[in-house]
Specification:
The complex is a heterodimer of chains A (114) and B (115). Chain A has 114 residues and is an all-beta fold. In chain A, 0% of the residues lie in helices and 54% in strands. Chain B is mainly β and 115 residues long.
């Protein structure tokens, strides 16, 4: 069965601090996809990254970076030098190949204080 | 290019009333989804569709029905609304290729309150 755990319910940091959001997943499939989405206070869901199970390279996009480790079934998300605009709820999601379905974690609310 | 749109944005229903939420996408996506979002529970899949004329149950389908008569539209119906269906509803769509999962594009959400 698929499962995504985001154990951090809420994190508060001061602006310019680095912060890591944890995502641990469970799957019995060898081919799967992992995603991160951002939900700012306005409510829309914004896609951030997609990663397949065969690509374990870490990815960096500006202040955002992602660490994918199959050995620990984790796909963690780091924001470097956080800004107030990073305040949002962040969701991690998992989709097994061919299932058409996506399983979302319960989300981590990040508050960046000025 | 509007992406994914949802109608209405807000609605208040009395228990027992019915309503239909409309989702439309202009990206020619095969797959479409309906989720509900409740505090502390993330997004839960209600129903989904892998193509025109097809629908399937998700994690929490009870009390809802769906139809996909046209590729670009996915309707979610509540036949007899209950207070437990108070939630924010999101529609999403994604591209399709056998064996591959693509990112989903979400609508702005519909906030439904059932009193």
């Amino acid at each position: 069965a698929q499962k995504v755990t985001q154990a951090q319910t809420e994190i508060s940091v001061v602006e310019k601090e680095d912060v890591t959001l944890d995502c641990v997943y469970e799957t019995r499939d060898t081919t799967y996809y992992l995603f991160w989405y951002k939900q700012p206070p306005s409510g829309e869901l914004v896609f951030l990254i997609r990663r397949n199970s065969f690509d374990e390279q870490n990815e960096i996009s500006g202040r955002y970076s992602w660490n994918f480790q199959k050995s620990t079934s984790s796909f963690n998300f780091t924001i470097t030098a956080s800004q107030v605009v990073d305040s949002a709820v962040y969701f991690c999601a998992l989709s097994e190949s061919g299932t058409y379905k996506y399983i979302f974690g319960t989300g981590t609310r990040l508050k960046v204080l000025a | 290019n509007a992406g994914v749109t949802q109608t209405p944005k807000f609605r208040v229903l009395k228990t027992g009333q019915s309503m239909t939420l409309l989702c439309a996408q202009d990206m020619n996506h095969e797959y479409m989804y309906w989720y509900r979002q409740d505090p502390g529970m993330g997004l839960r899949l209600i129903h989904y569709s892998v193509g025109e004329g097809t629908t399937a149950k998700g994690e929490v389908p009870d009390g809802y029905n769906v139809s996909r008569l046209k590729k670009q539209n996915f309707l979610l119906g509540l036949e007899s609304a209950a207070p437990s269906q108070t939630s924010v509803y999101f529609c999403a769509s994604s591209d399709a290729l056998a064996g591959t999962s693509y990112e989903q594009y979400f609508g702005p959400g519909t906030r439904l309150t059932v009193t």
